[in-house]
Amino acid sequence: MYCDYAHKTGFSVRKQNIIYWAHTRFIKGRGYSCAKAGLKVSKLLRDEQQKYRKLNTRTDCLACIYFYADNKGKNWEVTKFVEEHNHPLASENDRHLLRSHRNISTFQASLIKNMTGMGIRTTDAYNFLTDEVGGVENVGFCKSDAYNFVQCERRALIDSGDASILSKVLHDRQSEDNMFSYDIQTDEMNRLISFLWIDGHIKIDYDCFGDVIVFDTTYRLNKYNLTCALFIVVNHH
Fold first, then answer.
1. Tens digit of pLDDT for each residue in 197-233?
2. 17-25 — which CB contacts under 8 Å span 24+ positions?
3. What digits encode the pLDDT tens for the residues 30-53?
4. Radius of gyration (C-alpha) of the chain in whole angstroms
5. Which of 54, 50, 13, 57 is nearest to 32 (CA)?
6. Is 28 helix (H, G, I), strand (E, B) or coil?
7. How many CB atoms lie within 10 A of CB 18?
8. Which helix (H) or strand (E) holds 188?
9. A Pfam family this protein belongs to (predicted)?
10. How far apart are CA 143 and CA 72, in angstroms?
């Protein structure tokens, strides 16, 4: 209800803490505020320079609404409502960009997943959806949301099976070539971070010719958003 009001008015919403009745899971109170509420606290580490500065959009806006419920969670009432904002509100043409009102539906998510899975670029999939609904203001999310969704799906592929398949392939190669070696790095949740492999033929060439000629990397061009680094050697051919 408040989110619909916020969208029609022209501001984004931030959820506040939930209060529960003691020793129960019944909600006692819940609040929502303008996304520009409060002031951002600097978290710069001492003696370290900030690589980039994120835009600060907080204005200490006091607009909010608070609800309280009975101990059964059935009857709700508004206990506080502040309507005034201390910042300009989004125009009607820009309201589709408000963060709290952007959402990728199940159907849209399935369509984007299928299209990118067939090799269609994320931007083309997004443009297709916007054309279907008559413009970016009607699609319900922005292009960066589509890219973030695709990235999460690709990460999930690694988590759900590709990493174990990769480990098995490298292990099988090592059993076939006693000079083959590899290393896999995972995080604290056992998710794949990076891996390296070297086969026996390359080791023999390196012993003969000695020097690494080129160390080259791509910039996260593969579907897993992982950097590919190539050690390229040159022999007498």
1. 888 888 887 787 766 666 667 656 666 667 777 777 6
2. 21/71, 24/71
3. 899 998 888 877 665 444 555 556
4. 26
5. 13
6. strand
7. 10
8. none
9. FAR1
10. 42
Token pair listed for 143: 């292009």
Which residue, 138, 57, 126, is CA-closest to 92? Answer: 138
Residues 6+ apart with CB under 8 A from 16: 30, 31, 32, 33, 64, 66
pLDDT of residue 46: 46
pLDDT digits (tens, 9 = 90+) for 108-130: 999 998 998 888 889 999 999 99
- Name the residue type at position 31: G
User: Any idea which residue has 């799906």 for tokens?
Assistant: 153
Spatial CA neighbour of 10 closest among 113, 115, 85, 103: 85
CA distances to 9, 33, 96, 213, 226 from 15, in Å: 17, 6, 19, 55, 34
Q: Please give the structure tokens belonging to residue 42.
A: 């600097």
Q: Which residues pair with 198 in a beta bridge?
A: 181
Supply angle C-alpha 210, 216, 220, rounded to 5.
145
